[in-house]
Amino acid sequence: MSAATVFDYDLAVIGSGGGAFAAAIRASNLGKRVLMVERSTVGGTCVNTGCVPSKALLAAAEARHVGLDATGRFPGIGTSAGPVDMPALMEGKRTLVEGMRSEKYVDLIADYGWDLRQGTASFAGTPADPVLRISYPDRPRESVTAAHYLIASGSAPWAPAVPGLEETGYLTSTSAMELQEVPESLVVVGGGYVALEQAQLFARLGSKVTMLVRSRLASAEEPEASLALMSVFADEGIRVIRRALLSSVRKDDATGGVIATADVAGGREEFRAHRLLVATGRRAVTDALDLDTVGVKTGDRGEVLVQPTLATSNPRIWAAGDVTGHREFVYVASSHGALAVENAFNDAGREVDYRHLPRVTFTSPALAAVGLTDKEANGQGISCQCRILPLEYVPRALVNRDTRGFIKIVADNDTGKILGLTAVAKDAGDLAAAGVYILKAGMSVEDVANSWAPYLTMAEGIKIAAQSYTTDISRLSCCAI
């Protein structure tokens, strides 16, 4: 690329989610001319169909659950909860989403002054001279050039090729967010964070939920987390079928619902429900981008292959967020977008570092983790020592009258340095955030055990878990620890 080459833009971004906006904002602050191309609704998955609507509905479902459950937990408190007005609930969700999309996305485009094209982008030209081609539904196609391009087209729900599945009108995490009535019964296929959240959401709204799980719940996390959530789900009437592989689906003519057939523990079983929700993962949205034309390599699942700097196999094209196949969190996408711009325009040479990345599943109680699991530490040849603190030893949990869950610390046996933290608890995400700072600072178990912790907070549980390495915590006073 010659220094004298004149381009239409400095940066052309495909997509308008968290990664795209972080990149556009950073490039605008550097004085760069930015173009953003979006084929659908501005804002991407998080605000429109992912984080915001799902967590809003989860909060509503938890409020209803507390209303049904409070009498048993708190003596002297009488509460009740009636059937869910699903259209009203969805309208409230829609209003929230539209407000956040307008204030946090659309309005910012005008504030920063970059250009937005509402069309479908694909690449043309050659690897040495890539061109972005934009197709519109109501006007001629346009071609633009840029010094650098960023692919931030995100991901979409993926379903396995199961006989009969396509004919049954199955739900995904996206379409489930638009239901106008609570299904009387629901089969959820999957055991990851989306499946967990959706299963508990609909169970608390009134559905009879069955989960078909290939291995165990939250299989990438500590096994204790799986056991804790299994217990919670059982208490809430959610049936979890482990080691179940969906083999076929057909319509149930008698009820208008579906019949899901699965291979379970060497046998075959049928599961009937009014609706079927498939939450078996997501795949990068790259099919229509013509990446081969400009020499951008992709993986087996369509994800754009990137270096740790987020550069693709074409030095002028970068990628950020879900489309890379990396961890599917909006804060990862946002970090990617800013980092890619710094590397593209400032030659910063920065690399993505996931060592202290927190992971949160918004069940209730929530599951959150940061750093290494016990298994991962052992796999790296680290001699580690773990402690698991049941929540019955955390004063905040006792006050809440909810001791479901635990806090687990993974530490280096030789140095005492904390390598990982996992929690199943109310506000577990906040515990993981504290864990980020602990790991980043390189703190040891002794450091945390001797640090200040405010009484009657869940975060105090981290200190108590650290104390358990050297102290019989059952002999501690609850107010003098």
Structure overview:
This protein is an alpha/beta fold. The protein has three domains: 9-49 and 89-157 and 283-346, FAD/NAD(P)-binding domain, CATH 3.50.50.60; 166-280, FAD/NAD(P)-binding domain, CATH 3.50.50.60; 358-475, FAD/NAD-linked reductase, C-terminal dimerisation domain (Enolase-like, domain 1, 2-Layer Sandwich). It has twelve helices and 22 strands. The protein has helices at residues 18-29, 44-48, 51-73, 86-112, 193-205, 223-235, 330-346, 374-379, 395-400, 428-440, 445-449, 460-467, and strands at 9-14, 34-38, 115-118, 120-125, 130-135, 142-144, 146-151, 155-157, 185-189, 208-212, 239-241, 244-252, 257-264, 267-273, 275-278, 282-284, 317-319, 358-361, 366-371, 384-390, 406-412, 418-425. A five-stranded parallel sheet has the order 3-2-1-7-17, with helices on one face. A five-stranded antiparallel sheet has the order 18-19-22-21-20, with helices on both faces. It has a four-stranded parallel sheet with strand order 11-10-9-15, with helices on one face. Strand 9, helix 5 (193-205) and strand 10 (208-212) form a beta-alpha-beta unit. The radius of gyration is 24 Å and the shape is globular. The mean pLDDT is 94.
